[in-house]
Amino acid sequence: MIKMHYSPEFKKYAVALYRAQPGKTITQIARELGISRSTLRRWVLEDSRENPEILAMPTKDDSFSSESLKAENAFLHAQIEQMKQECDLLGRTTVHFIRKAQRQT
Fold first, then answer.
1. In the Cβ-directed half-sphere of 2, how many Cα atoms lie within 13 Å?
2. Is residue 3 a part of any domain in this protein?
């Protein structure tokens, strides 16, 4: 079996996607992303340990408190903002290199 290596950004995206869709199971999200269920489950558990203020992986008996949902929402908004900044930086860097390449030709 080939062991896949995923970027930290992809792992964060996968966990955020799972948490943003409480009606979907880990299996459904993993299938959409093309990864194994156990891989996504491990990432969610690891993230829950690293970020205890965020909801842990829910079970069927869990009820979500208003405070935990607010904390998770704030965390996800911060992640979105960080990703927007990273995309902006990537876009500006791309433009820089395109212009540099055009000057060299």
1. 4
2. no
- Domain range spanning residue 14? 8-104
Give the count of domains, the chain: 1
Helices 8-20 & 37-50, crossing angle to 10 degrees?
90
pLDDT in tens, the chain (105 residues): 567 789 888 998 999 888 888 888 999 999 999 999 999 999 999 988 888 766 555 544 455 567 777 777 888 888 888 899 999 999 999 998 999 999 987
Side-chain half-sphere exposure of 80, counting CA atoms within 13 A: 9
Q: CA-CA distance, 24 to 80, in Å (whole number)?
A: 20
Separation between Cα atoms, residue 66 and residue 85, nearest integer Å: 29
Where does residue 71 fall: left (phi above 0), alpha (psi -120 to 50 degrees), or beta otherwise?
Answer: alpha
